[in-house]
Amino acid sequence: MTRWLATRSPEASPTLQLACRAQHFRRWEIPRSSYPMTRPGYLTWRAKLKSQAASQVAELLASPAVEPALAGEEIERVAALIRKENLKSDDETQILEDVACLVFLDDQFDEFEKKPEIDEEKIIGFAGRDATAIYSRVHADSIIQTTIPVSKRIGQLVTSTPLPPPVQPPSPPPPSSKPPLASLISSHDFAAAAFSSFPAKTFAFVSSAATDLHTHHANTAAYSAIGLRPRVLHDVTAVSIRTTILGHRVTAPIFCAPTSLGKTVHPEGERELGRACKSLGIAQVVSTSASFPLAEVMDAIRLTPPLPANGREQQQEQQDIPVFFQLYGVFLTVDAPVPGKREADERLAADESTHTPMSGTRAVNDAAGGALGRIMGKYIDASVSWADIAWLRGCLPSGVPIVLKGIQTAMDAVKAMEMGVEGIVVSNHGGRSLDTAPATVLVLLELQRCCPEVFDRMEVFVDGGVKRGTDVFKALCLGARAVGIGRGALYGLNYGAEGVRRYVEMLNDELETTMKMCGVTSLDQVHPGLLNTGAVDHLIPQSAAEEHPYAKWRRKPEGNSKL
Ligand SMILES: Cc1cc2nc3c(=O)[nH]c(=O)nc-3n(C[C@H](O)[C@H](O)[C@H](O)COP(=O)(O)O)c2cc1C
Q1: Which of 257, 259, 262, 228 is nearest to 245 (CA)?
Q2: Cβ 475 under 6 angstroms from ligand 1
Q3: 215 C-alpha to center of ligand 1: Å?
Q4: 298 or 176: whose pLDDT is higher?
Q5: Where a domain ends, among 124, 159, 194?
Q6: Which residue stretches does the UniProt record annotate as biased composition, category Pro residues (predicted)?
Q7: Ligand 1 centroid distance, CA of 421 (Å)
Q8: What is the CA radius of gyration of the chain?
Q9: Which of 331, 370, 477, 557 is found 20 to 30 A from 523 (Cα to Cα)?
C-alpha cells in the first residue's frame, strides 16, 4: 500500500499515509466466510471491515503509547478515510480507494481472473470501468504496463480503451511534509516533524523502545511527577549555564548522547551532529555504531568554523569541545549486553546496505523482520564484566577518563566508584534495553538516598526522557553534571546542524527561564531542596543492598527439596 501510495500521490498527507497503512487493520478477525457468499453479503462484510478497522485504529492512535500524540481531529480524519467517507467528493478518500485497487491489480488480479466463477464480462467490466478510471487519474501508462508485469491482460484491456495522453509525474518528487524549522518551538514539535517526514523505518528505529515502552514513558513521566519549588525576589538578570564535563569547559550542561546510524536521519549523520555540537560549544559522544569512522567525524568537527561568540561566551569553549570516544574519554555502554527487543523497529524490514564502519557489521532481514538495532547485537560481547574495566584502564593512556554508561542502581554506582572510573551515565538507553527498568531521574534520587558520596567521587551524568529545560534543571538539582539527549538530537538533525542547534538552544532557553523562576543564576546554586519529590519518594529504594526489603524467601537448590 505504501509503495503504491507513493506512486499515486507522492505528496500524500501524514493522515492519508496513516489511513493507507492501517486500512486493513486486523482484517483477519472478520473472515469473508462469516457473511453469506452473495453480493449483499459481500457488501455487508466490506462495510463491517471498514467500520471495525476505523474504530480499532482510532482507539490505538489515541493510546498514550503513541508518540508524538495525535490531535483528536487527526485521529478522526484517519478513521473517516478508513471508512471511505465521501468517496466521490473527498480527493483523499478517492486516492485511498485507488491505491487499494492498484494493489489488487498488482498483487491479486491474476489469481482473481483464474477463478471459475469470474467470467470475461466481469473482467472487462472491471478493467474498462475501475482500472481505466484509476489509470486516467494516475495519468501514467507506465504504472499499469510496466510495473504490473503479471497483469498483462489487464494492461491489454485497459490500453484498448481510449485514454487521455500520459502525463509525467512531477519531478523531482516533492519533499515530504516537513514544517519549516523556524516554526518549531518545542521538543514535541521536533518529534512531530520527524514523524511526518522521516521514512517509516527511520522513525521506527529512532523512536522505538523495548517491548511495552513502560521505561521509555516513565523516563519522561517521572520528570513531570517531580515538582519545582520556585524562589522569588532574587536578582536573576544574568544567568549562566556554563559548566565543565570531565575538566572540559562547555557552554551548557547538555550533551549529545551516542546514537547509532546517524545516516538514517541525515546524509552527513554524526559528522553533521559534530558540526552542530562544535558550534554550540557542547559535548558529543560518538557511538561505536556511528555511520562514519571516528576520524571522519573528527575531520568534520575540525573543519567547522567556530560561530562568532555570543552571550554565552562560546568562542573559547569551541576550541575545546569534548568529543568522547577514544580522544577525550571512553564512554563504555554497559546497559546493553544484548540488544533490547524493539518491536516497532523489528517489524519493518531494514535496508541491508546499512552498516556501521567502526564495528564492521551490516543490517540483515529475516522472516521475523529486520531491526536496525540487531546490528549492535552482532559485535556486543555479552561476557564483558567488571573485571574488564581494570583491563580497559590498563589499555588506555594515563589521564583518559572512563565513563560507564547505563548504571541503573545504587549498587552498581558504588561498584563503579570503587573501580575508580571518572564518571557514570545513569541511563537505561532511553528505555530501549530493558523494559520496566527504573526511570533515570528516579535512579538519581536512589543515589542521593543510598550512596550520596558517589556524586563527590565521580561525575554523574544522566539521560533518557529529557524533553524540557525543567527536566534538565531537575536532573542538575539531583546531582547530575550534565544531561544527554538521544532522540531529540536526531529529531533536530532532521534539519541538519541548524536543527540540532535550534533544538539545544531551545532547551538552553527553557533551562535559563527555569533557573530565573527558581531564583538561581548559576549551576553551582542548584540543589535538591528546589524540588518536591513527594509524589515519587515511595518508589525510591531505601538502601544499596542486594536484598529485597521484605521478601526474603529464596528458592531451595534442586535436590535439597523435602517434597
Ligand atoms: C536511535 C538511537 C540509537 C542509539 N544508539 C546508541 C549507541 O549506539 N550506543 C549507546 O550507548 N546508546 C545508544 N542510544 C541510547 C542513547 O545514547 C541514550 O541513552 C538515549 O537515547 C537517551 O534517551 P532519549 O532518547 O530519551 O534522550 C541510542 C538511542 C537512539 C534513540
Answers
A1: 257
A2: no
A3: 14
A4: 298
A5: 159
A6: 162-178
A7: 21
A8: 28
A9: 331
